[in-house]
Write a structure and sequence with these properties.
Strand content: 15-25%
CATH architecture of the largest domain: 2-Layer Sandwich
Structural class: alpha+beta
Oligomer: single chain
CATH topology of the largest domain: Alpha-Beta Plaits
Mean pLDDT: 82
Shape: elongated
Radius of gyration: 24 Å
CATH class of the largest domain: Alpha Beta
Distance between the termini: 38 Å
Length: 304
Amino acid sequence: MPFMALSRKPSPIPGWHVSDDPEPDQPASENGDDSRPSEPRHQVRLQKILAASGLGSRRSCEKMIEAGEVTINGHLMTKLPVLVDPAHDHIVVNGRRIKPPDPYVYIMLFKPRGVVCTNDDPEGRTRAIDLIKHPSHARLYPVGRLDQDSSGLLLLTNDGELANRLTHPRYSVHKVYEVTIAGALDEKGLKRLQRGLFLTGFRSVPKADRASRTLRSRLTIVKRDRDRTRLLMELREGRNRQIRRMMAQLGHQVKKLRRVQMGPIKLKGLKPGQWRELMPRELVALKKAAHRETRKKKTRKKAK
């Protein structure tokens, strides 16, 4: 008898949708050829919504669904995949209603000097989030940090996954800084900066007091004379006050430090203290850069 595969796809229930579509997060078609005009738009995988609500990783949320701990509009879910419309569907996990997640907001701020990047500052200093008056009132968090004496491009968002990818050295999203230091930076010092210097306090090192070499940097001298040097410095990691500490090892004091680029996003069209939302094309480019390392890693695995 020939083998017959049995479909695990359950029958549709009003208010939710199950699909084997490999791209489930795409909205329904708006043209007249759409065979499912009554389906909810902006459908997302259920485990993604649960993970975004802080219930655990996507894999652990999948296990919760399969264990019968989740209901959608009063219907018990035990099989995957399940697509939901988080804005309209009633999602309950172990008796707890899961509220629709806030829409993601992506802000570019020209952080002025004197402003801190922490959201919790007991000293009462001006915070970066104090400068953002977004109509959504979303709770935003800085992507990485610029110290109080530095200025320039600062991204703020409530998209935790993207923020992690932009700041974790594993994904190597580069940041470019315009640095002005006291004195003339000689060629020997330039090569030392490019190769990397040993600094303490990096999370990839088992002991916090153990020094490790910084990743290689690209440097471009913009202007150099006897009294000062201005250069562009590209980093792919973000240690605490990294540039200032590196320059201090070489005997140079940082006079001015401004971040002018993060990945493909450049600081343009803003004055200190001003902000704007990222344009769609900027957001697409930023997400592409943040996922580049993952794609390379998968390619290496396939090659093996």
